[in-house]
């Protein structure tokens, strides 16, 4: 045997550089540190810390330990019955509508332990089509619908089809949900940024879209698609119908695939701003060549069933040939998880008035949505009262994205630690309070501005905000210029 | 508005060409046709067909409709209890060990509706480490273990880390499971084929590995990894310990990442050939720089819970920095489905002697494995009696991969239809009998040979083989030279 020292084939010097470049702050440095604190507490060494528990506000994960949003009873009953079909006749434990739903789904699926069609169970796709038809007033074809592992699975599918590396690009909002920038980095393609106007409630200005696209063109970027997140993440802003019309026309004019991230369509707190889908507007406008991919998920809304990994995408104006390629691509990972697919069915077919579960379901749903709305309002009000902090009211979604103005001394201290000022602030917040939020840099922010994103998922929001306020005041006092 | 005709941005002329190149025959043309027949039968137009039902033998999907392998009772009870924790105290319906397991898992997980850590629930990873330690007699670190959405999810993760497009390559067996060739096509990297010796029971010849690697080198290929499937898919062959030692040394010598697809480790029919893991051999040989990634899945074995999308990978001899990158990459799709993770726990911690569920679990397990073994034997025996067909005995996994020698006239007829002869044969089989199998070309086969893959999952294997035999005889008579 040779005596030379063998080298390691795969390490960070030989890794696919696209992976190195991808960033995903929602689960980045600060959440990783929070995990370590959490482990320290579980291991019984929490005494050394200035807090008793980690409060995970870095991600929209309502059922997480520490937040503990109760799952919807009807959803879980149907899920349990699909796991144990022998309980379907047990009328003592399960309401009739849950038993009927489980029977119906199992009749179509067979077993939740079987691979389904790679696009998802045909029956559930048909239900999704009916849901879209009744939502938008326009027909939907089940063959254009793919069930996916969360919305992320759908975005991953579309990006694989769409992007060929350099010099392809996709327009994304700033701030954005970092799935998009990370997926673009993995594809070796470019982000084409357009900025939302914080001073006008995170409004989307169509002139800025035009400018961003033409700048990209002069940089040699082949811009292929436009991502719109409505309701906005992290902004919480809801687009007006007028704005949606402009955007659809813009995408149509420039032959961009319109990627409509509509996963927060059930999270609307401002009754004067109903959710309007891009599908409806595109059909209203008869934009027959506008290619639209609209995403939805069981992880958000009021269900918050993130762990199920369920979602769907509707492809509008894509050819049959293209969808065959999409099906082939989906088939390589076989199929989305079956309980995720069952959850999609539950998402789009809630109990109806008169059904045995209707009252309980409605009560659970209303309680969750009322909580989200009131917490969002409390957060914005309280943030706006803090020294150097401003925060737009969230009209929807499940986040607040306050802007923080930090003293020069704090910025210098951050620099000394090799951190951006927002990351420094958020790390200090974690170290002092156990509260885990994400620095604005993880979503993108206009130059010279600093933010963080938190969620409206914390029960006892007053206490939570009191803790942040106390930290913030101490932080500002410590670093005051 | 301009009057020029707008074009469609994304169609098969502008699609990512890597997607066009990827092939996945397990769900390819023939299964798609079978789906259409299935729909025709469900729609009440089956009378026009020469069969009553589709028999899906294209994929290892035991619980599929038409095969209907019953799920393991203990697994489903625990799954249902994690969905509906309020049933955990119901001693009338659920055995104590199932209730205890669900309690323990929920204590660790919180809710199956929450995102977990992107690598999977830490507690379950710890259990996997204990399982590996007891299987191999060597320690395993939970930090090296990633829970994944089936083994496919793990392979996808590793290929993303490892491959940088051209001129990277990975050695794969011929025949292989097409996940590997498809994933390489998507990465824009090369397949480096090595042929298994059908005449010696699909033996892996180390000289052919050496030759294949050196040929690749002279083609300018940067070969980074070696895929071994043991027990083999589609071959059903089990590697001897001697062979495993040679392979490990080969990978070590050439600094290749060893990708050990060991998802059929519980599917062993030949008692003289126990499963030996690459991890054990690598540790026995003290190959401290050999990088090994070993995959396992809940979809195979005797559980067959494909729809759960559960699995895991153990990374051996990868740096902490590299694993951090892997974690970041996993985090972009958030986490594997929670019921898949629960299933992994059940896979590696079956009921123990003395537990309330032990007897029933053992009975169910034994029945499934005995069926697989006896059906595999029946299939090989009967295939070997057919005109022009030879078939190695499957020692493990869940497939038969018979070689078929077709008359020239059949090959000419295939050519006329623009099909390869094996695809032509399999399509005729489907059209005439409703039996759906996969042509050997989907897995790769030595030049001049033709095969198909079927599964050992059909109840009533005698009837099944009788149908194939009748078809085969008629086919051979029709095309006899």
From TrEMBL, chains A, B:
Q: Which cofactor does it need?
A: pyridoxal 5'-phosphate
Residues of the Aminotransferase class I/classII large domain: 94-456
Q: Where is the chain membrane-spanning?
A: none
Q: What GO terms are given for molecular function?
A: pyridoxal phosphate binding; transaminase activity
Q: Name one GO biological process term.
A: L-alanine catabolic process
What domain of life does the UniProt record list for this protein's source?
Eukaryota
Keywords for this protein: Aminotransferase, Pyridoxal phosphate, Transferase
Is Oxidoreductase tagged as a keyword? no
Q: Does the keyword Lipid metabolism apply?
A: no
InterPro entries reported in the protein's UniProt record: ALAT1/2-like, Aminotransferase_I/II_large, PyrdxlP-dep_Trfase, PyrdxlP-dep_Trfase_major, PyrdxlP-dep_Trfase_small
Where is the signal peptide, in residue numbers? none
Annotated family: Belongs to the class-I pyridoxal-phosphate-dependent aminotransferase family. Alanine aminotransferase subfamily.
Q: How does it assemble?
A: Homodimer.
Q: What's the protein name?
A: Glutamate pyruvate transaminase
Q: What is the species listed in this Swiss-Prot or TrEMBL entry?
A: Wallemia ichthyophaga (strain EXF-994 / CBS 113033)
Highest lineage ranks of the organism?
Eukaryota, Fungi, Dikarya, Basidiomycota, Wallemiomycotina
């Amino acid at each position: 045997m040779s005596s030379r020292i063998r080298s390691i084939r795969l390490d960070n010097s030989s890794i696919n550089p696209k992976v190195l470049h991808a960033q995903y702050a929602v689960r980045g440095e600060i959440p990783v540190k929070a995990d370590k604190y959490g482990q320290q507490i579980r291991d019984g060494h929490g005494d050394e810390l200035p807090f008793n528990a980690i409060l995970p506000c870095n991600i929209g994960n309502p059922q997480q330990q520490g937040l503990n949003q109760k799952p919807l009873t009807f959803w879980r009953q149907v899920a349990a019955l699909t796991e144990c079909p022998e309980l379907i006749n047990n009328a003592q434990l399960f309401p009739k509508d849950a038993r009927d739903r489980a029977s119906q789904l199992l009749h179509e699926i067979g077993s939740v332990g079987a691979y389904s069609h790679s696009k998802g169970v045909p029956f559930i796709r048909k239900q999704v089509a009916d849901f879209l038809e009744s939502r938008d007033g326009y027909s939907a074809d089940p063959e254009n619908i793919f069930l996916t592992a969360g919305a992320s699975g759908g975005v991953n599918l579309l990006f694989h089809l769409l992007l060929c590396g350099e010099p392809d690009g996709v327009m994304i909002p700033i701030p954005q949900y970092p799935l998009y920038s990370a997926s673009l980095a993995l594809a070796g393609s470019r982000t084409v940024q357009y900025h939302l106007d914080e001073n006008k409630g995170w409004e989307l200005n169509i002139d800025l879209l035009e400018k961003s696209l033409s700048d990209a063109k002069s940089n040699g970027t082949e811009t292929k698609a436009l991502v719109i997140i409505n309701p906005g993440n992290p902004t919480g802003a809801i687009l007006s119908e007028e704005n949606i019309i402009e955007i659809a026309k813009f995408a149509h004019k420039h032959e961009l695939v319109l990627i409509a991230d509509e996963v927060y369509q059930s999270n609307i707190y401002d009754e004067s701003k109903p959710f309007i889908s891009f599908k409806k507007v595109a059909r209203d406008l008869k934009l027959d060549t506008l290619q639209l991919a609209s995403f939805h998920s069981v992880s958000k809304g009021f269900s918050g069933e993130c762990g199920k990994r369920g979602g769907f995408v509707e492809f509008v104006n894509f050819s049959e040939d293209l969808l065959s390629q999409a099906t082939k691509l989906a088939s390589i990972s076989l199929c989305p998880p079956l309980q995720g697919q069952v959850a999609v069915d539950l998402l789009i077919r809630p109990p109806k008035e008169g059904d045995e579960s209707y009252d309980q379901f409605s009560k659970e749903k209303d309680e969750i949505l009322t909580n989200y709305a009131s917490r969002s309002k409390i957060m914005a009000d309280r943030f706006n009262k803090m020294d150097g902090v401003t925060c737009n009211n969230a009209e929807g979604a499940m986040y607040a994205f306050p802007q923080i103005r930090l003293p020069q001394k704090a910025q210098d201290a951050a620099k000394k630690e090799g951190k951006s000022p927002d990351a420094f602030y958020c790390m200090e917040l974690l170290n002092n309070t156990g509260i885990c939020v994400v620095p604005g840099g993880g979503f993108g922010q206009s130059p010279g501005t600093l933010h963080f994103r938190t969620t409206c998922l914390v029960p006892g929001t007053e206490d939570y905000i009191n803790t942040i306020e106390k930290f913030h005041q101490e932080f500002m006092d410590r670093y005051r210029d």
